[in-house]
Write a sequence for this structure.
């Protein structure tokens, strides 16, 4: 945007008067009748094409714990023995939880 450097500049009093007048004009306009809509409620109504998975069944093969795995007592994730913290005094804790 081009600036006209020859135009008279407004001082602080003129700026504050303009803003007060603008506020009075906005107040006289009244409040809008638009209702704010909750985003989560609006998102629940959308259905993506091909996204109906209600009839699908997951086929996941669950393996028993392996000999080289442990379950962390802090985060409850199954980890490899190499992730076992050596400084854990209270059960089997992974390195991530031991340093956190």
């Amino acid at each position: 945007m081009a600036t006209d450097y020859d135009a008279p500049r407004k001082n602080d009093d003129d700026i504050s008067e303009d803003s007060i007048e603008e506020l009075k004009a906005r107040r006289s306009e009244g409040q809008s009748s638009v209702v704010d809509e909750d985003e989560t409620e609006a998102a629940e109504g959308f259905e993506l094409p091909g996204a109906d998975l209600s009839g699908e069944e997951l086929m996941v093969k669950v393996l028993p714990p392996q000999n080289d795995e442990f379950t962390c007592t802090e985060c409850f994730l199954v980890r490899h023995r190499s992730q076992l913290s050596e400084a854990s005094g209270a059960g089997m804790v992974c390195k991530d939880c031991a340093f956190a």
Summary: The longest strand covers residues 69-71. The helical segments are 12-29, 39-44, 95-99. The first helix runs from residue 12 to 29. The two ends are 52 Å apart (CA to CA).
